[in-house]
Amino acid sequence: SQTIHQWPATLVQPVGSPLSLECTVEGTSNPNLYWYRQAAGRGLQLLFYSVGIGQISSEVPQNLSASRPQDRQFILSSKKLLLSDSGFYLCAWSVSSTQYFGPGTRLTVL
Amino acid sequence: SQELEQSPQSLIVQEGKNLTINCTSSKTLYGLYWYKQKYGEGLIFLMMLQKGGEEKSHEKITAKLDEKKQQSSLHITASQPSHAGIYLCGAAATSGTYKYIFGTGTRLKVLA
User: Fold this and answer.
1) Is residue B89 within 8 Å of residue B32, measured between CB atoms?
2) Domain holding A91: CATH number?
3) Does the domain formed by B4-111 have CATH 2.60.120.330?
4) Chain A contact for B10 (CB, 8 A cutoff)
5) Among A66, A101, B78, B95, which is disulfide-ready with A48 (CB 3.0 to 4.6 Å)?
6) Measured between beta carbons, which residues in chain A are less than 8 angstroms from residue B33?
7) Residues A23-76: pLDDT tens digits?
8) Does B49 reach chain A within 8 Å, measured CB to CB?
9) In this structure, what DSSP letter does residue B102 have?
10) Would you say B110 and B80 are in contact if contact means Cβ atoms under 8 Å apart?
């Protein structure tokens, strides 16, 4: 069966510091991968999606970036965090139309 | 752009009561997905509806997609404390796209 992992589970970072969140999927090949952000009281916002290694589509211009160095690995990064980057970050995968989500990373920028 | 509106935003029911959550789209839906989220956790996939008039059930949860494919309802029968959480509907932004849009969620609390 397929499993999706995210780490870290929680993170507290100062403004201006770098960020790296990692997501890995097990049990499937060539999945589509997604990064979402969920802000308090708001719905999920799609940040990036990838249909293959090195292929990244950005949905929202911001100071975040994503990379897919391996088939089942998706990384969300920032060089300098802003206060507005705080939120709950979710990684998801799909091979057909249904998306399956990871446990999430709670990021607090102080 | 397409939006998904959920109602109600929050719901408190007594254990054993039935309840319904609605999800309305501003455009035709190309696949409607229901998820459940516990606070601070990821989304758990419940079910997917694609055809107009389709209805699916999972345990005590039933979801329907109307004939015009612009509204879906999620119905819980004989609610239990384990049903508590946030229910979100999601949909493909356009046919064949990888991009989903989501409603803002319905927070359900079930009183024992």
Assistant:
1) yes
2) 2.60.40.10
3) no
4) no
5) A66
6) 98-99
7) 999 999 999 999 999 987 678 999 999 999 999 998 886 789 999 999 999 999
8) no
9) E
10) yes
